[in-house]
């Protein structure tokens, strides 16, 4: 049940889950076959995985900075990194990262938020080292097999919030840069991946109240967005109206995924500003809405990544003692 109402919509309360603390938690992915959520700490080049029922945690460290992931198969993920697109595997004794397929990024640039469309293409936007610089505008890329990397265009300072409607014919993407935080909706051609007819869906001065970060779609085609700086996630209807929210006790939620047999539990990552402020924990919230499982990346077996480096499975005592799910 909701803890409160604001205006005409309910507000649900998220509770801390486990003891893992990240500097910049991002990009959670639930695997129903193993009941695990995998997510990244992009500030520390780490990948975390938690078993929801037991609370057991694993952590891995990689030589590349990883900002987002999507699942390809059990234990394998496609990733956005400071060396372009990559794949990572987190098998128990053999974590590794393969990269070098592109796009080629200038010094200091990296990929940012990423997600798969309904056809299994992986999308991610580039990001400048100084997003406020005159030449700090970035663009969107996709990765698919066997075509490889494709530049898709767009103009973003800090690309985030990628999600697609159930039909796949509407794509949402946010720009969370402080100068003009907003969410755009686009018509999306499922066959070609072409994007057209961009229109404003929501902005900070209107519905959001904060900077729009990571996002996910639910079964009603409502767009859940982490409204950074507000301590809330907002549910936006296809018409762009807020009809529910989830409230946290820290100001900077970053991303979310749905989990559980009914997909009515929300797993939330957060930011610890400057590595010292409140935040960085993970959170769980129960809601009366059904989510969707994120699409899998479909092209891993058709692509060649020329470079591979080993990662490191971190000792269990580095992972904080977890709290099992109730």
From TrEMBL:
Active site (catalytic residues) = 213 (proton donor/acceptor)
Please state every residue range assigned to the domain named SMP-30/Gluconolactonase/LRE-like region: 24-271
The record's listing under InterPro entries reads: 6-blade_b-propeller_TolB-like, SGL, SMP-30
Cite the cofactor comment: Binds 1 divalent metal cation per subunit.
Swiss-Prot/TrEMBL keywords: Hydrolase, Metal-binding, Zinc
GO MF, one annotated term: gluconolactonase activity
Q: Which cofactor does it need?
A: Zn(2+)
Q: Where does a divalent metal cation bind?
A: 26, 160, 213
Matches recorded under SUPFAM superfamilies = Calcium-dependent phosphotriesterase (SSF63829)
Q: Which family does it belong to?
A: Belongs to the SMP-30/CGR1 family.
| Protein name, per record | SMP-30/gluconolactonase/LRE family protein
